[in-house]
Amino acid sequence: MNENTSAIVSKVWSFCNPLRDIGVGYGDYLEQLTYLLFLKMADEFSKPPYNRKLPIPTEYNWESLTSRRGDELEQHYSKTLNVLSRQKGVLGQIFVQSQNKIKEPAMLYKIIDMIDKEQWATLGADIKGTIYEGLLEKNAEDTKSGAGQYFTPRALIRAMVECVQPEPMKTIADPACGTGGFFLAAYDFIAKQPLDKTQKHFLKHETFFGNEIVPNTRRMCLMNLFLHNIGDFESENFISPADALISDSGLRVDYVLANPPFGRKSSMTATNEEGEQETDELTYNRQDFWETSSNKQLNFVQHIRTMMKSTGRAAVVLPDNVLFEGGAGETVRKKLMETTELHTILRLPTGIFYRQGVKANVLFFDNKPASKQPWTKDIWIYDFRTNIHFTLKKNPLKLEDLRDFINAYNPDNRHKRKEIYNAGTNPEGRWRMFTYDEIINRDKTSLDITWIKDKSLADLDNLPDPDVLAGEIIENLEAGLESFREIMITINSEKEK
Fold first, then answer.
1. pTM value?
2. 416 falls in which pLDDT band (50, 70, 90)?
3. Is it true that the peptide bond before 49 is cis, omega within 30 degrees of 0?
4. Could you tell me the domains of the chain?
5. What is the spatial distance between Cα 296 and Cα 282, in angstroms, rounded to a whole number?
């Protein structure tokens, strides 16, 4: 982030504290910024040199806000949101269920004035996008709001994209897209390649497909993509409000990049095509699933496999329970190895997610046509967890931290990999290959595999810093509590049958 971009982020974010004093939280503020930024940019694009006709009624455009003061401004802004929420296309999707949360007219005017002083249309997509991403990350840091659960570390996303290497003229989906981080990284990767006019149009309008059931998060995703030059004012809706797990939409894509939500709670509610919340059972009964389960992550694995073309490729962040859980978990792992080539697992360190207690992995797998023999022949595992410590503030995860993994993955030709691990000469090597037979013969076909000694357990003189150690204790306690919650949910659901 350059100095000018940082200055704009700081200026925009400077309103947070005074707004919080009058009861407007980070998330609410970011939501209002989304509305106002959209209207300001629409205003700029309606004037020379762009002269675009946009579907915003004149009486509710940007100038209608800047020309008002006091109570009249607050009332008109509230009415504007109500009117625009009923419009079609991206406009209606941005403003769906919108409400004015800034009831103090003087503060509302100051924010509008601050936005009005910047020429947003002339800023490059990379700058606008960086500003908005900066705001989203600041919002994610507010752990009390829970916004961090929708924010995957950008360094991890970029590393996953570098490994998958998405190509132009191919489709990309994320069935739980949050604020759109995977789409942005994929867009940047593809946009750096030499593209002709057709390829540029496809990248902007036809590449990305997502689902996000939380209205505010979906709104921020649409705005985030729009500011990064994905989609347009009049684009068709490519971020669905429907719960992806309800049914097979029929969509088949070339790539799936995703970090599905952890936990089980939201599986009790579903969002229909109209965006309405409906109470549902803990399980999704789908004919295309290998196994019916209350474990949401296992359901997402099955759904993602359904979404993929026969040549499709996926990189998915999943919690540890997907690797070792018995019953449905074992069935899903076996079927995944049979029907796809599950070739790589990256074991992630703790301390990189805003939600504490998360122990996660990235699974890389390629879909294949039907076959009598399992497609998975061997699985390469990179242990990026044991004896590795990160914290969100003092030592955050950076892309360079993942460079050794990317090199070991060998994106240019993953079939020419070399083990770093050696039982005799390098038992601490983090990159190791396991055959299909070795995996299938493990208890419950467990993919939860580690071989490196934990130095903190063996060497008391080599303990991490106190804050890191305390963080790890909290992570482990949170993970343990989450496991107990899941066990209780399973027990209770069994009793109800």
1. 0.83
2. very high
3. yes
4. 3-123 (1.20.1260.30), 133-482 (3.40.50.150)
5. 9
